[in-house]
Design goal:
The complex is a heterodimer of chains A (180) and B (181). Chain A has 180 residues and is mainly α. Chain A is built from 9 helices and no strands. Chain A has a domain of 77 residues. The termini of chain A are far apart. Chain B is 71% helix and 3% strand. Chain B has 8 helices and 2 strands. Chain B is mainly α and 181 residues long. Chain B has a two-stranded antiparallel sheet. The N and C termini of chain B lie far apart (49 Å). The longest helix of chain B is centred in the C-terminal third of the chain and has 31 residues. The chains are: A mainly alpha (180), B mainly alpha (181). At the A-B interface, helix 2, helix 3, helix 4, helix 5 and helix 6 of A face helix 1, helix 2, helix 3, strand 1 and helix 4 of B.
């Protein structure tokens, strides 16, 4: 029991241990949604943002195809999943006593981009737009496509992962230059 | 149940992301610098575990598979290529940003989440001009690799598992990882 509490309180686990937990969540998601909701579903994150954004999108263009027929507004499974992920992050930080309101908490970021908060906010805002748009084109993000698709051996997931690693490495090389 | 279930699944998912350290900028970007392989180890381990659970459960008739994500070669690949740029730039992805926001990271909570919502609005409003064209190229529909290539899924899982284990061995024992600077 002491061992268990010690593990829970650790700030960081071995990626293998955390990966096993994620794999189990992946299995449980399919099993429980199939058994309890009679509609098997997958984990995902980018889709939830689309269901929320649909409220805004429909206000801008009421006859828009996407927000009427593909991703309509609503408190869907994906949206509630996002709320859960939020509290999961909170629980994790709470367990390791690192839960705290903070900005600019990454030393490596400061080394590369400097100490200005507005610069970080701008890069994160633009980066998030790029990520969400890309997830739309690809049909999902790291969770909804790479993990959820990959665990069912879907070709799309492996194409996505390959693309993501290739351009991620090139982008890091450009940003870090000699420090890569 | 339709609320409690996704909430609980999300909590464990977010908890795993936190414990894996993926809610940190340097953890994500150092994967792309190839001097911290945690993201790759985390993802591949999750994939292997989930494959080994889901396919046998399906074969035993315990579960039905959900509709799988659609494969349209160019769109999946181009989407991944753009995604990698954003991920190496911001150091998060949609899931890790939300989990990080829950940890109290205001940088993730405000510009991060607002950015994802903005991106989703822009995508939805331009969907008609982009998606039908790109998803029409080499579209195989909602298919899995074993179905597409007519191979035994367990053979595919075995090959994938061996590849993952070999990669883990090369990283951890053979030092196939760049030195930290």
């Amino acid at each position: 029991m002491n061992w268990f509490i010690k593990q829970i309180r650790k700030e960081e686990w071995s990626p293998y241990a955390a990966g096993i937990l994620l794999g189990i969540v992946g299995i449980l998601t399919v099993v429980l949604t199939d058994k309890v909701l009679n509609a098997p579903k997958l984990l995902g994150a980018s889709g939830g943002f689309e269901n929320i954004a649909a409220y805004i999108g429909k206000a801008i263009n009421p006859s828009n195809t996407y927000f009427n027929y593909v991703m309509p507004p609503g408190m869907t499974f994906a949206v509630i999943l996002l709320v859960g992920i939020f509290f999961g992050g909170m629980l994790g930080a709470f367990s390791s006593r690192t839960l705290k309101f903070r900005t600019m908490d990454d030393e490596q970021w400061k080394m590369i981009f400097g100490k200005r908060t507005w610069k970080r906010w701008l890069v994160l805002f633009v980066g998030a737009i790029v990520l969400e748009y890309a997830a739309g084109i690809a049909g999902g993000c790291t969770s909804g496509l790479a993990i959820s698709g990959g665990m069912l051996l879907v070709p799309a997931a492996f194409l996505f992962i390959a693309g993501m690693f290739m351009s991620g490495i090139v982008t890091a090389l450009i940003i870090y230059g000699k420090r890569f | 149940m339709s609320i409690i279930l996704p909430l609980l699944l999300g909590v464990v998912f977010g908890f795993a992301l936190n414990k894996a350290g993926l809610t940190k900028y340097h953890k994500i970007v150092n994967q792309f610098r190839l001097n911290d392989m945690a993201v790759l180890k985390f993802m591949l381990t999750a994939l292997v575990v989930a494959m080994l659970g889901l396919y046998p459960l399906h074969a035993l008739g315990v579960i039905n598979f959900p509709t799988v994500p659609a494969t349209y070669v160019v769109g999946n690949l181009v989407g991944g290529l753009i995604f990698g740029v954003g991920m190496a730039l911001a150091g998060f992805c949609p899931g890790t940003c939300v989990a990080g926001a829950g940890e109290g990271k205001v940088d993730y909570l405000v510009p991060g989440i607002l950015g994802f919502l903005t991106g989703a609005v822009i995508y939805g409003l331009t969907y008609d001009k982009v998606f039908p064209k790109i998803s029409a190229i080499a579209n195989y529909g909602n298919v899995t690799l074993p179905e597409l290539w007519h191979i035994n899924p367990y053979l595919a899982i075995l090959v994938f598992t061996i590849m993952a284990l070999v990669l883990f061995y090369l990283i951890d024992r053979m030092g196939m990882q760049r030195k930290k600077k």
